[in-house]
């Protein structure tokens, strides 16, 4: 890792994959961040540690640490994200990209530079990576995840900058669990404010009714006194 910003972005991608799958109702998947993937049982040196990867339709196992493909029915990642840095750029752009394309045959590969904001993606087509074409917003569509992937400027863990985030098909941002909790708190606060306002209006209406009743009662008493005179 070049900086804490890289780690924060990696965690954000991991979180976004989990939240998207939770919202979509998908329970069987694996998402890893910097976990090693071993792909040659005869050579343990042949491994990579993607910054974030996603494997769908596999049993959930929170205890796994290393992904050995020969022990996992030869399942390779369906999506891989790499975060570019000064020390990893060449490897991510060339060496790892070739492994993901030719060995893993991973359907989608994205890389993002958290500092320079370079963002590109590829889809596997007939055994070769073909560059994805961004839409007018600069976003790329991930068929494997069922979301748009694109830039987002905002505050994450007290750090305001541009991040790589996911968007639903309708363009709405895939929230983090913290953002979901914040939204729920805001809705609860708004509901409490509304309920308090309604209760206040009811109390005021009741007080006004009581005042009018008393005024009417006093007027009736005054009219009775006048008639007796």
Descriptive account of the structure:
The chain has 229 residues and is of the alpha+beta class. It has two domains: 4-175, tt1808, chain A (Alpha-Beta Complex), CATH 3.90.1570; 176-229. It contains three helices and twelve strands; from the N terminus they run αββββββαββββββα. The strands form three sheets. The chain has a six-stranded mixed sheet with strand order 1-4-6-7-8-9, with helices on both faces. It has a three-stranded mixed sheet with strand order 3-2-5, with no helix packed on it. The longest helix is centred in the C-terminal third of the chain and has 52 residues, at 177-228. It is elongated, with a radius of gyration of 29 Å. The mean pLDDT is 90.
Descriptive terms for the model:
alpha+beta; 2 domains; six-stranded mixed β-sheet; tt1808, chain A; 229 residues
């Amino acid at each position: 890792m070049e900086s804490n910003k890289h780690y924060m972005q990696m965690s954000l991608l991991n979180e976004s994959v989990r939240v998207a799958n939770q919202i979509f109702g998908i329970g069987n998947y694996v998402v890893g961040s910097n976990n090693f993937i071993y792909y040659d049982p005869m050579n343990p040196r042949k491994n990579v540690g993607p910054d974030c990867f996603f494997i769908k339709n596999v049993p959930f196992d929170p205890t796994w640490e290393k992904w050995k493909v020969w022990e996992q029915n030869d399942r390779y990642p369906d999506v891989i994200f790499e975060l570019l840095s000064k020390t990893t750029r060449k490897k991510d752009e060339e060496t790892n990209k070739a492994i993901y394309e030719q060995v893993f045959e991973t359907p989608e590969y994205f890389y993002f530079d958290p500092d320079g904001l370079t963002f590109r993606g590829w889809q596997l087509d007939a055994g070769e990576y073909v560059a994805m074409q961004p839409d007018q917003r600069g976003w790329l569509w991930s068929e494997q995840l069922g979301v748009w992937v694109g830039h987002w400027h905002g505050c994450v863990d007290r750090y305001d900058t541009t991040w790589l985030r996911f968007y639903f098909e309708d363009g709405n941002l895939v929230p983090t669990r913290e953002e979901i909790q914040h939204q729920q708190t805001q809705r609860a606060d708004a509901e409490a404010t509304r309920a308090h306002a309604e209760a206040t209006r009811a109390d005021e209406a009741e007080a006004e009714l009581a005042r009018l009743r008393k005024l009417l009662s006093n007027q009736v008493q005054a009219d009775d006194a006048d008639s007796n005179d």
